[in-house]
């Protein structure tokens, strides 16, 4: 059974513009390995303005996909932070008397040799 191919809006526009520019239907079909009837359908849709709506929908879909990817990255980052905090909670709290930096953690106790 033949598998259906999908073509981008840009490719469809290119084929239609070549046809409207004077290329023969048979030549286009042979060169791009397409059905002549399919090219006729694309020409009718192009003249009706359907490709403009499809292009707008494709742009909107790309925007949504980018937004979804950004949100997925954010969720992944938050999941890592939660895992880190849960691990810190299991280890127990540091004594409040120990000075601590958020960046480096608890400060090391100086050794007696460093006092010289």
**End-to-end distance, in Å?**
86 Å
Could you name the ranges where pLDDT drops below 50 across 5 or more consecutive residues?
none
Class by alpha and beta content: mainly alpha
Give the rounded overall mean pLDDT: 82
Spatial strand sequence of the major β-sheet: 1-2
Outline the structure in words.
This protein is mainly α and 116 residues long. It has a domain at 1-48. It is built from 4 helices and 2 strands. It has helices at 9-20, 25-32, 36-48, 50-91; strands spanning 100-101, 105-106. A two-stranded antiparallel sheet has the order 1-2. β1 and β2 form a beta hairpin. The chain is rod-shaped, with a radius of gyration of 31 Å. The N and C termini lie far apart (86 Å). 4% of the residues are buried. The mean pLDDT is 82.
Provide a quick synopsis of the model.
With 116 residues, the chain is mainly alpha-helical. Helix content is 65%, strand content 3%. Strands 1-2 form a two-stranded antiparallel ribbon.
Short key terms for the protein model shown above:
single chain, mainly alpha, two-stranded antiparallel ribbon, 116 residues, rod-shaped, 3% strand, 4 helices
Please write out the topology.
Layout lengths: L8 H12 L4 H8 L3 H13 L1 H42 L8 E2 L3 E2 L10
Antiparallel strand pairs: 1-2
């Amino acid at each position: 059974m033949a598998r259906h191919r999908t073509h981008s809006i840009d490719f469809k526009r290119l084929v239609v513009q070549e046809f409207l520019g004077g290329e023969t239907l048979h030549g286009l079909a042979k060169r791009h390995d397409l059905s002549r009837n399919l090219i006729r359908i694309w020409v009718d849709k192009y003249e009706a303005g359907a490709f403009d709506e499809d292009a707008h929908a494709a742009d909107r879909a790309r925007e949504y996909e980018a937004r979804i990817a950004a949100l997925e990255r954010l969720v992944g980052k938050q999941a890592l932070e939660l895992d880190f905090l849960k691990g810190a909670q299991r280890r127990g709290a540091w004594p409040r008397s120990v000075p601590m930096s958020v960046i480096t953690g608890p400060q090391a106790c100086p050794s007696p040799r460093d006092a010289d």
